[in-house]
UniProtKB/TrEMBL annotation:
High-level lineage: Bacteria, Pseudomonadati, Bacteroidota, Flavobacteriia, Flavobacteriales
Catalytically driven reaction(s): Hydrolyzes free adenine bases from 7,8-dihydro-8-oxoguanine:adenine mismatched double-stranded DNA, leaving an apurinic site
Biological source species: Jejuia spongiicola
Pfam families listed in its UniProt record: HHH, HhH-GPD, NUDIX_4
Alphabetical keyword list: 4Fe-4S, DNA damage, DNA repair, Glycosidase, Hydrolase, Iron, Iron-sulfur, Metal-binding
PANTHER family according to UniProt: ADENINE DNA GLYCOSYLASE (PTHR42944:SF1)
UniProt record similarity statement: Belongs to the Nth/MutY family.
EC number(s) from the headed UniProt entry: 3.2.2.31
InterPro entries: A/G_AdeGlyc_MutY, DNA_glycosylase, HhH-GPD_domain, HhH_base_excis_C, HhH_motif, MIG/MutY, MutY_C, NUDIX_hydrolase-like_dom_sf
Stated role: Adenine glycosylase active on G-A mispairs. MutY also corrects error-prone DNA synthesis past GO lesions which are due to the oxidatively damaged form of guanine: 7,8-dihydro-8-oxoguanine (8-oxo-dGTP).
CDD domains reported for this sequence: ENDO3c (cd00056), NUDIX_DNA_Glycosylase_C-MutY (cd03431)
Superkingdom to which the source organism belongs: Bacteria
Protein name, as recorded: Adenine DNA glycosylase
The gene coding this protein: mutY
Amino acid sequence: MIFTKIVTRWYSNNKRILPWRQTKDPYYIWLSEIILQQTQVKQGLPYYEAFVSKYPSVFDLANAKENDVLKLWQGLGYYSRARNLHTTAKHIVSDLNGVFPNNYKDLLKLKGVGDYTASAIASICFNENTAVVDGNVYRVLSRYFEIDTPINSSKGAKEFKDLAQKLIDKKKPAEFNQAIMEFGAVQCRPKNPDCNICPLNSGCMAFNKNRIHELPFKIKSAKAKKRHFNFLVFISKDQKTILEKREGKGIWQNLYQFPLIETTREQSNGSFKNYIKSHHLLKNRSFELVLYNKDVIIHKLSHQHLYTKFWIINIDTLNVNGILVDEIRDFPVPIIISNFIDAFNF
C-alpha cells in the first residue's frame, strides 16, 4: 500500500540515531520499550543509558536489589513499570534460563508486557508480523484515515490494531513498526504538526478536512481526585530524620517518604500544630514547627492531584530509629520528595 511505502521511505531518510536501534537483543529492546512507555525519548534516553551501564544483561538486573532499581528509575514516574521490570528479569533468569520468549504470544505472558511491547519485541527481534499500536500510531492512523473511534476504548484498541496489522510490511515488519512510531513522534506530532511538508498530506483525510486538531479522539477521563498531603520533615539535634517505606498497592509502592498526614483540606500553621500534637512521633514531645513552602505544591498524577506541604519539625531527639540526613539521598523516593530534598539542601 502507498501509505506503508511512504512511511518507511520517510523513516529511512529521517530516523533518529538511538542506541536501541543498533541492536536486536531482546533485553535491550524490552528495556527501552518499558522505559519509553508514557515517556518521551529525550526524557527516557538518559535512563536507558543508565540502566544499560549498571545492568548490562538480564542477569545483572535480576540480581539487583529492588531499592537500587527504584532509585535508578527515580524521576520517571509510573513506578510499577520498574517493579515489573525487576520481577520479569528475575522470572526470565530463574524460569527461562535467561532466554527471552521469541514470539508475541509468549512475550505477552511476561509481567508488565502488553500488546504494544510484545509486538515491538516480537517484530524487531524476531521478525514476527505483529503490528505495534502506541500513542504515535493512534495519532497517525486516526488522522490519515479520519477515524473518530475513541482510542481509549476497547472498540478503538481492536479497530486500530486490525488496521495497523493490514498496513504492516510483511517482509520488513520491524522497519515498518519503527517507521510509523517515529513518524508520529517526529512528523505527525500531537500539537502544531507541519502538515505542509508531510509526505502523507495528499491522502490525509484529517488534513484535507481541517480536522488535524480534533484527532485522535479520546473519551474524557473522570475528574482527578484532589488530595492534601502534609509531609513531616523531622530534623533532630544529632542530624537525623525519618523516612518511611510506602506499603500496599497505592501510589509510590515501595518508595520512601517523610511521615505523611493526609487531611481533607489545606492546613494553616496554628491549626496543623494542634492537629499533630497527638501524632505518635510527637505525643508529649516539645518541637518547633515551620512550614517550608508557603505556596502549596501541586503534583499531578494521572487520576489524582496532590496538594502538598512540607512541614519542618525541629526536635531534640527522635523516638524512633531515624537515618542520618547525609544518607537521605541513598533511598528511592517519589519525584516530589526528591525535588524537596534538592531544594532544602540537607
